[in-house]
Amino acid sequence: MRVAVGIRLALKLCVPQQCRCGTQVDSFGLHSVVCKRASGRTVRHHHLNDVIAKYLASAGVPLSKEPSGLSRSDGKLPDGLTLIPWRAGRSLIWDVTVSCTTADSYLEASSREAGVAAELAASKKVVIYAGLSSQGEFVPITVESHGPVNRDALQFLNELGQRLVETTSDVRASSFLFQRISVVVQRFNSVLLHDGFIDDEGPE
User: Fold this and answer.
1) How many domains does the chain have?
2) Is the dihedral angle over the CA atoms 175, 180, 119, 27 positive or is it negative?
3) What letter would DSSP give residue 149?
C-alpha cells in the first residue's frame, strides 16, 4: 500500500542507489517499473493474463491461452483466444501488456493527458498482430503502471463485466474484475521496486 500511494503521489520511496542493471535509481524509484532485468515483469504479465482468462471462463466463455495456431511473423503468440465468437461472429484474440506511465518514451505525452501511454502501447500491439485480423478480433489489453487502460481494453472489460453480471447474477462482478486488475498492477509495482535492490550480504 505504501508503494502504491507513493507512486500515485510522487513521493520518495527509497534511498538513491544503483539498480542491479547498473542504472542509478533516484529516491522515487521509478526506474524499477521499466528495468528489463526485473524478473517481476514476466510474472506480472502472467498474473494479468490469468485474471483475464479466469474472468472469461467465469462468464462461460471457453478459451485457449497462447494458442499455437496464431503465431505472428516472429513466432510469438498472443496471450489468448476465445473458442466461441465474442462479437459479430468473431472470436476474441487478446494480448496483455503493462506500459510505464513515466517511461522516457511516454513521459511527455503522459504529462498532457492520462492514458496516453496505454494508447501508444496498444497501437504498437495492433501493428504487430495485424496479420491475425482474418482469424478473429484482436484487442490489445494495455494497462499503465499508474492505472489507466487503453480504450479498446476498457470497452472489452466493460462487456466482460456485463457478461459476468448476467452469468453470476452478482451486480458487483464487473467491479471485482476492475479491482482485481488494479490490485495486480499495484502489487507488482511494489515487487518491481524490490527487484531492483542489491543485497550486499546475499547473492544477486
Assistant:
1) 1
2) positive
3) B
User: Does residue 27 fall inside a structural domain?
Assistant: no
- CATH code at 149? 3.40.1350
53 in a structural domain: yes
The predicted model scores a pTM of 0.85
Q: CA 71 to CA 95: how far, in whole Å? A: 12
Q: In what order do the strands lie in the sheet with 80-82?
A: 63-65, 80-82, 92-99, 137-144
Q: Please give the Cα distance from 156 to 24 (Å, whole number).
A: 39
202, part of any domain: no
Helix residue ranges per DSSP H, 10-149: 40-58, 104-110, 116-128
pLDDT tens string for the chain (204 positions)?
Answer: 888 888 777 889 889 888 888 888 889 888 888 888 888 888 999 999 999 999 999 999 999 998 887 766 667 889 999 999 999 899 999 999 998 887 878 878 877 888 899 999 999 999 988 888 888 999 999 999 888 899 999 999 999 999 999 999 999 999 999 999 999 999 998 888 888 787 655 554
Task: Name the residue range of residue 120's domain.
Answer: 41-185
Q: What cell was used for 46?
A: 502472467
SS3 92: strand
Q: Which residues pair with residue 200 across a beta bridge?
A: none
